[in-house]
């Protein structure tokens, strides 16, 4: 189910990733989520680094996973990164306005399109 | 300290021997970076967070990234590379050192309650990490004991027959011992009684609803017939929580309820919580 905001997305990340994990689509969906967002958070934008750092970690986790039968600890690590990525984006984009609202909205949209 | 974070580069330029992150968590997703290579990373003395994840550049690893966890029992001594010319794969982002809490935090945590008539305090954890630029022979990552002191917390007024409750939740990540004192200040002919309960909670990656929690101890109707000396006016409830197996809970919650809604302590209570990495002596 689509999340209404980034905090809800963070709260839903376990259940949403769990469904992907059972369907053996977690690896692909994580890569889709992160690759689609990276251009939105350019390296030149210093305040965007926390979000792009999480995207980097999500991509590392994704590439290290097998395509199927992902171990539970790897699944939980992915959930952890997704949870934190959503919270970080919320902090920077909604609470502090250090990134643009469009950037924050892009993360939510990508989450709802690929993970939820 | 909120974002934007301080620059490790500037610390190095200014001749500092280390870069210290000492900050309340702004969010559960806080992640920090350092463009400076390190010769040692350890938990700082004032950290509530017990476990910190470190990612660093390692060109022999897949994705050119390696990771480690540091804690009060284990730091990293030796060179950890931050490679601003190298890139983590497949993102292509520079190979800086990344630091984030390995413990789960949720600012929307809902503590256990006995009613809806509550005064709630939820303390935000502090992340304290030190990155040394110079070689270190060893690192002792011990944390200070931490005291949470609330001089006077007033009970919410009773609502109908529902007494007021005071709920204090503090970080307990990795701690092995806590001592809790609850005092009723004031001089009374008969001391207004209170109920005290203590809970430990393990946070999950969810919405922060208090589920599940573990009841550590529960003391009810404390000192209903306690005649206080002139200067004291105190009731001490001193459960000592000993978790020798270490760091069982993420958060510690003390719940104090007025036992009699018609006779709530007018000056509230004083609460002191001391947490330590040192187990309680036998």
Descriptive account of the structure:
The complex is a heterodimer of chains A (116) and B (282). The N and C termini of chain A lie close together (6 Å). Chain A is built from 5 helices and no strands. Chain A is mainly α and 116 residues long. The longest helix of chain A is centred in the C-terminal third of the chain and has 24 residues. In chain B, a hairpin with a 7-residue loop joins strand 4 and strand 5. Chain B is built from 1 helix and 19 strands. In chain B, the strands form 5 sheets. A 5-stranded mixed sheet of chain B has the order 10-13-18-15-16, with no helix packed on it. In chain B, strands 1-11-3-6 form a 4-stranded antiparallel sheet. About 6% of the residues of chain B have low confidence. The longest helix of chain B is centred in the first third of the chain and has 6 residues. Chain B is elongated and about 70 Å long. At the A-B interface, helix 1, helix 3 and helix 4 of A face strand 2 of B.
From the alpha-carbon coordinates, what is the Rg of chain A to the nearest angstrom?
A: 13 Å
If you compute it from the alpha carbons, what radius of gyration of chain B comes out, rounded to the nearest whole angstrom?
Answer: 23 Å
Q: pLDDT below 50 for ≥5 consecutive residues: which ranges of chain A? A: none
Q: Number of DSSP helices of chain A?
A: 5
- Tell me the overall shape of chain B: elongated
The greatest interface between two protein chains, and residues involved on each side, is:
A-B, 38 and 30 residues
Fraction of residues in β-strands of chain B? 35-45%
| Element string of chain A (H = helix, E = strand) | HHHHH
Number of helices of chain B: 1
Report the average pLDDT across residues of chain A: 96
Mean pLDDT of chain B: 83
| N-to-C span of chain A | 6 Å
Query: How do the strands of the widest beta sheet of chain B line up side by side?
Result: 10-13-18-15-16
Structural class of chain B: mainly beta
* Largest sheet data of chain A: none
Helix content of chain A: over 70%
Number of strands of chain B: 19
- The helix-strand sequence of chain B is HEEEEEEEEEEEEEEEEEEE
How many E strands of chain A? 0
């Amino acid at each position: 189910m689509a999340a209404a905001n980034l905090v809800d997305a963070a709260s839903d990340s376990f259940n949403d990733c769990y469904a992907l994990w059972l369907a053996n689509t977690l690896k692909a969906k994580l890569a889709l989520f992160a690759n689609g967002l990276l251009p939105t958070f350019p390296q030149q934008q210093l305040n965007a680094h926390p979000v792009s750092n999480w995207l980097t970690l999500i991509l590392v986790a994704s590439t290290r996973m097998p395509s199927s039968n992902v171990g539970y600890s790897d699944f939980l690590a992915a959930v952890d990164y997704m949870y934190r990525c959503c919270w970080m984006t919320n902090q920077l984009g909604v609470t502090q306005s250090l990134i643009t609202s469009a950037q924050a909205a892009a993360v939510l949209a990508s989450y709802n399109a690929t993970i939820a | 300290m909120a974002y934007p974070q301080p620059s490790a580069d500037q610390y190095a330029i200014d001749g500092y021997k280390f870069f210290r992150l000492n900050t309340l968590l702004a969010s559960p997703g806080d992640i920090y970076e350092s463009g400076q290579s390190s010769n040692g990373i350890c938990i700082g003395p004032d950290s509530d967070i017990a476990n910190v994840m470190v990612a660093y550049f390692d060109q022999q690893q897949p994705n050119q990234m390696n990771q480690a966890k540091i804690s009060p029992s284990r730091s990293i001594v030796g060179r950890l590379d931050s490679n601003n010319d190298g890139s983590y794969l497949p993102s292509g982002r520079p190979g800086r050192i990344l630091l984030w809490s390995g413990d789960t935090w949720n600012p929307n945590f809902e503590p256990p309650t006995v009613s809806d008539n509550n005064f709630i305090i939820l303390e935000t954890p502090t992340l304290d990490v030190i990155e040394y630029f110079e070689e270190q022979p060893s690192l002792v990552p011990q944390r200070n004991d931490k005291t949470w002191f609330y001089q006077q917390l007033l009970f919410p007024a009773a609502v109908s027959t529902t007494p007021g409750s005071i709920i204090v939740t503090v970080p307990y990540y990795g701690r092995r011992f806590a001592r809790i004192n609850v005092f009723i200040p004031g001089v009374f002919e008969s001391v207004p009684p209170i109920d005290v309960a203590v809970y430990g909670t393990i946070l999950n990656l969810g919405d922060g609803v208090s589920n599940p929690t573990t009841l550590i101890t529960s003391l009810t109707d404390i000192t209903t017939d306690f005649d206080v000396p002139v200067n004291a006016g105190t009731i001490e409830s001193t459960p000592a929580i000993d978790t020798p197996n270490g760091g069982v809970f993420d958060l510690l919650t003390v719940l104090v309820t007025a036992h009699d809604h018609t006779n709530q302590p007018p000056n509230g209570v004083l609460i002191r919580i001391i947490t330590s990495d040192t187990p309680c002596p036998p």
